[in-house]
Amino acid sequence: MQTQYLRGKDLADKMQKAMKNRVDRLREEGKVPGLTVVLVGEDKASQVYVRNKERRAHKVGIKSDVIRLPETTSESELLTIIQTLNADKSVHGILVQLPLPKQIDEQKILRSIDYEKDVDGFHPMNMGNFLLGNESTLPCTPYGIMTLLKSYDIAFEGKKALVIGRSNIVGKPMALMLMNENATVTIAHSHTQNLKALAKEADILVVAIGKGHLVDADYVKQGAIVIDVGMNRDAAGKLIGDVNTEAIDGIASYVTPVPGGVGPMTITMLLEQTIQKVEKD
Ligand code: GUN
To answer: Which residue range or ranges hold the Tetrahydrofolate dehydrogenase/cyclohydrolase catalytic domain (predicted)?
Structure first.
């Protein structure tokens, strides 16, 4: 079987080009979409994500600011900044990059963001509405994955899906989105037994555990669709996914590359949800 790449980068470029036109139209009406990203500390991966978000936002015409704060920032200092952003009418989207330093309660911070400006979909109001099937902002990574899969006309109905990873950001919302498309979903995590055997039954395998090249041919059923959410560095510092793509070549029907698969789609959905906040205004 010929394995096809699900090229998130290509779809992201196409979608962002169309977004630029929408933003130009909004600007003509005097509405400039504004996105503020808050980055606390020196986490290397977060710095890369934030730089990419800023670059892409700028490219589609979104006014993008990054507030960079030191590792030692206190919870109350961060809360004060968020209150200011909540009150600022030129800011339509607020994103606090995770993870936060350990002295800061992540959930308390996410709760403090005006949920109507929460472009990440992490506020409990958005998470709750999403769970209930109401309109809400969606977590960008799983939303981007679903958008990518749908663009390749991949069907979900009755398929067996396995999501490896149970984070609030990826695993849990991913499972829910797949279930909403009528897949039969299992979630695996660090306590799951016989992971290889379980994975080998899956028609759709989503891997989001942050272990470089964990998934190889032993985990993948013939013809499976494999989504790699991993962003790891190997010993030489090269960016690698959770899936050993070469090892599953000829086994999977589709696989997302790293880089160029899921990452660009996450950013695209962030921009999409920021623009939507202004269009709905
Ligand atoms: N850290 C890793 N991924 C994300 C994301 O999508 N949003 C935020 N805010 N933090 C992250």
So the answer is: 6-120
Would the annotation count 261 as a binding residue?
no
Fold classification of 140-263 is Rossmann fold (3.40.50)
Is 276 annotated in the active site? Answer: no
Task: Give me the residue spans of the domains in the chain.
Answer: 29-114, 140-263
Nearest atom within ligand 1 for CA of residue 270: 6
CATH C-level class of 29-114 = alpha beta
Has 16 been annotated as catalytic? no
pTM of the complete model beyond 0.90 = yes
Residue-wise pLDDT tens digits, 189-206: 999 999 999 999 999 999
Bridge partners, 39 (sequence order): 68
Question: Based on the number of CB atoms within 10 Å of its own CB, is 73 exposed (0-12), middle (13-18) or buried (19 or more)?
Answer: middle
98 Cα–ligand 1 center, Å:
5
Q: Is 36 in the pocket of ligand 1 (CB under 6 A)?
A: no
Cβ contacts of 79 within 8 Å, gap of 6 or more: 108, 109, 112
Is the ipTM higher than 0.90? The answer is: yes
Residue 154 has a pLDDT of: 98
Please say if the pLDDT value at position 281 is more than 90: no
Residue 137 has a CB neighbour count (10 Å cut-off) of 27
* Mean pLDDT, rounded, for 77-105: 98
